Automatic annotation (TrEMBL):
This is tRNA-2-methylthio-N(6)-dimethylallyladenosine synthase. It comes from the Bacteria. Residues 139-371 form the Radical SAM core domain. PROSITE patterns: MTTASE_N, MTTASE_RADICAL, RADICAL_SAM. Residues 6-117 form the MTTase N-terminal domain. [4Fe-4S] cluster 1 binds at C15, C50, C81. Gene3D superfamilies: Methylthiotransferase, N-terminal domain, tm_1862 like domain. Belongs to the methylthiotransferase family. MiaB subfamily. It comes from Sphingomonas oligophenolica. InterPro entries: Elp3/MiaA/NifB-like_rSAM, Methylthiotransferase, Methylthiotransferase_CS, Methylthiotransferase_N, Methylthiotransferase_N_sf, MiaB_methiolase, rSAM, rSAM_horseshoe. GO terms for molecular function: tRNA-2-methylthio-N(6)-dimethylallyladenosine(37) synthase activity. Transmembrane segments: none annotated.
Length: 439
């Protein structure tokens, strides 16, 4: 038994959807009358976990150990994808108080109350009726806010746990999304990033009952006064439909940035991954996207060392990177996940081979990212200011192409200002505010 917690701390790992869930859990705890606190002092610590790679999972157990140092015994709730994947095993292994899956966290207050009474508190259900309708209203939000519109995945790439931890693909209804977007804007958001494991698979009926895709939803959000920018992530190549590509040419608030994971440049490996797109079909999509929006910044995800990956396969990945010229990209060493088909494949790749390939891939990506940043010097664009920098008077915001822009200006966080990009570094650019000429 532990006393009912008065203070809480939520720590999120993993993808942006987990960040969104973490914020919603914080709102839930606040609505229950608890107050936020640092992890080292909170009565209740929620670890909102990620299961995507082995190291992400191990972090959870080391975090639990750290929370219990110096004789402290906060109530610990494990949420997120590790909670879903490991369930009761976490209670056995780490003696945590609450385990709650990503589709059940609207029940967190009830589970915390149960734990305070000394009862078992585990909920990893995936109910048909989603949690969203049971969460409190949005209140304080940053200038750039997340909005989950789609969850789950039916693609079953052979390396990936997401279809198991997040369940089947579900689109949130049109009306609920539009309402939440308006609430976010009323609470101060200037930019909204629509989130989903396969966000471009979103589908729903608009207010008139017409079936719409993500592009229709984006056009509806475009009409919200006060909203300045719209982004979306993560997309799957197979769901990159014509309407969405056209929206990039036509919707001014839709930012010229596309995160489109490819994973490998080798058709043989793509097939073994069950990606259901080829190197060529991926490149053709990017050609269409660039034809619609020539300044589009492209981003991707890569896995090196998938079982059976030869040096020739890896060379295909490097040549794809050369062909695309990414503005940024993420790359990971393959991590075998229990229960996924690839974990049982023969020809697992040696760790030192993966290390070496990852280094070469990251060098290529970094080179292109720096080139992209350099090529943007002299461009004029809007910058949405998101936070303070380390230097006195310095502010940091984002360009339309998702670059971090460092600048000094007489402006506040949440302002959109016009800037000329003045200099570039590997991971950021600096800008100078353009002063409006008097009319
Ligand atoms: N639904 C999104 C995001 C998936 S998870 C998509 O399909 O793009 C984010 C990234 O993690 C993936 O794109 C992939 O590059 C990486 N990833 C997923 N499973 C992995 C594994 N078992 N080992 C290494 N990287 C993995
Ligand atoms: Fe995982 Fe593939 Fe689904 Fe992305 S599309 S979440 S990589 S199974
Ligand atoms: Fe991780 Fe779950 Fe997101 S496994 S990447 S937190 S969907």
């Amino acid at each position: 038994m532990k006393p009912a917690p008065k203070t809480f701390h939520v720590k999120s790992f993993g993808c942006q959807m987990n960040m969104y869930d973490g914020d919603r859990m914080s709102e839930l705890m606040s609505a229950e009358g608890m107050t936020p606190a640092e992890a080292a002092e909170a009565d209740l610590v929620v670890l909102n976990t990620c299961h995507i790679r082995e190291r992400a999972t191990e972090k959870v157990y080391s975090d639990i150990g750290r929370l219990r140092k110096n004789g402290r015994a906060p109530m610990i709730a494990v949420a997120g994808c590790v909670a879903q994947a490991e369930g009761a095993e976490i209670v056995r292994r780490a003696k945590v108080d609450v385990v709650v899956g990503p589709q059940a966290y609207h029940n967190l207050p009830e589970l915390v109350a149960k734990a305070a009474r000394g009862e078992a508190a585990l909920d990893t259900d995936m109910p048909v009726e989603t949690k969203f309708g049971r969460l409190p209203a949005r209140r304080r939000v940053p200038p750039s806010a997340f909005l989950t519109v789609q969850e789950g995945c039916d693609k079953f790439c052979t390396y990936c746990v997401v279809p198991y931890t997040r369940g089947a693909e579900v689109s949130r209804p049109w009306g609920a999304i539009v309402d939440e977007a308006k609430a976010l804007v009323d609470a101060g958001a200037k930019e909204i990033t629509l989130l989903g494991q396969n966000v471009n698979a979103w589908e729903g009926e608009d207010a008139s009952g017409n079936v719409q895709g993500l592009d229709g939803l984006i056009r509806a959000l475009d009409r919200i006064e006060g909203l300045k920018r719209i982004r979306y992530t993560t997309s799957h190549p197979n769901d990159m439909r014509e309407g969405l590509i056209v929206a990039h040419a036509e919707v001014e608030k839709l930012m010229p940035f596309l995160h489109l994971p490819v994973q490998s440049g080798s058709d043989r490996i793509l097939k073994a991954m069950n990606r259901s797109h080829s190197r060529d079909s991926y490149l053709r999509i990017l050609d269409r996207v660039r034809a619609a929006r020539p300044d589009m910044a492209l981003s991707g995800d890569f896995i090196v060392g998938f079982p059976g990956e030869t040096e020739a396969d890896f060379a295909d990945t490097l040549s794809l990177v050369d062909a695309v010229g990414y503005a940024q990209a993420f790359s990971f060493k393959y991590s075998p996940r229990p229960g996924t088909p690839a974990a049982d494949m023969a020809e697992q790749i040696a760790p030192e081979v993966m290390d070496e390939r990852l280094q070469r891939l990251q060098a290529a990506i970094n080179r292109d990212q720096e080139a992209f940043n350099l090529a943007s010097v002299g461009r004029r664009c809007g910058v949405l200011l998101e936070r303070k920098g380390k230097l006195p008077g310095q502010l940091i915001g984002k360009s339309p192409w998702l670059q971090s822009v460092h600048l000094v200006a007489d402006a506040a966080i949440g302002d959109m200002i016009e800037v000329e990009i003045a200099a570039a570094w590997p991971n950021s650019v600096s800008g100078v505010e353009l002063v409006h000429e008097a009319a």
